Amino acid sequence: MATATASMRDNIDLTVLPFHKEALDSITQLRKDASTISLPDFTTATKTDTHTHPIPSWFRTLELSAAGRETPTWDESSHLTFMAERGIKKSILSVSTPQANAFASPNKFEPDAELRKKKTVALARLLNEYVAEVCRLWPERFSWMGVTALPYVAESVREVEYALGLAPLRSGLGEFYFETARALSSLIASSPPFNATLLKYPSLHWRISHGAGAFPDISERFLLGFPDISAAAQEAYKSRLWYDSAGPVWPNQIKGVLEGMGVGTKQCVFGTDYPYGIGFWDVDANIKGLVEAEFMGGEEKEGVYWRNAERLWGGKIKF
């Protein structure tokens, strides 16, 4: 199998994972399933969903609980149906937590440091192979973000290089929102000492989840601690950060980004958090909130649905 061959070439031992055979078989099964799945009608679909998650069954067993509730199941057929019913033309897939770091988390902690590294590297490879196969089989419907083996830098660089050749690639309830705020803060308050990652790499663009979470409420106060770079940071927030709508974001929460931070709607992109959002919040109400938002015109809404995502990835994803 190509996956196993490439892994051996890169000196990645997949057998350190007890479920490696199940994972390889699931990739083969994707190909078999593709020949039997009847695609729904996407004729009128235009939206681009920038925030969705594939959950292979073997990966789900590593983290059976997400935000205090049971981790949802996922399959490509159900996802395609979900998309068609909501006018979503294309979804960007990204593996959710713990990604490749399952063996650094309390639930599955691996005490042997060397074995933990090997498991992390192997899991990153299997996840990338699985999601890449989904995108190969339905290239008009799915694209993806790769998984790295961080904190192992050399192995992560190798995995990024490998993932780029696989398929079209884009380079608790309250916790999500506070974690998002913390992550955004870290882009400025990077250490040591305060390197301001956001400003240090001006060519990088960042897709920010959950409508920036709690960050708009603290952004001005936070930047008081960095007076020398505050203006540059605010400009970057308005031009190189892209805010997705995963969660109950429209029409109220997003105003923190638009009005509180002064960001234009051209930096907002569509997202559903499928399948985690199902049964968690009302995904359709969030979409309706965008549809009926009185403070936006039709062209701005069309931008959020798909045009802004095209600009974000600059031709790297075919829409």
What does this structure look like?
Belongs to the metallo-dependent hydrolases superfamily. Residues 193-314 form the Amidohydrolase-related domain. It comes from Didymella glomerata. GO terms for molecular function: carboxy-lyase activity; hydrolase activity. Keywords: Decarboxylase, Lyase. The chain is mainly alpha-helical and 319 residues long. The protein has 13 helices and eight strands. The chain has helices at residues 2-9, 20-34, 57-60, 76-85, 113-137, 153-164, 175-188, 197-200, 215-223, 230-239, 255-260, 283-291, 298-313, and strands at residues 47-52, 65-66, 69-70, 88-93, 142-144, 206-208, 241-244, 268-269. The protein has a three-stranded parallel sheet with strand order 1-4-5. A three-stranded parallel sheet has the order 6-7-8. Strand 4 (88-93), helix 5 and strand 5 form a beta-alpha-beta unit. Helix 2 (20-34) runs parallel beside helix 5 (113-137), helix 5 (113-137) packs parallel to helix 6 and helix 7 (175-188) packs parallel to helix 9 (215-223). The longest helix has 25 residues, at 113-137. It is globular, with a radius of gyration of 20 Å. It starts with a helix and ends in a 6-residue tail after the last helix. The relative contact order is 0.13.
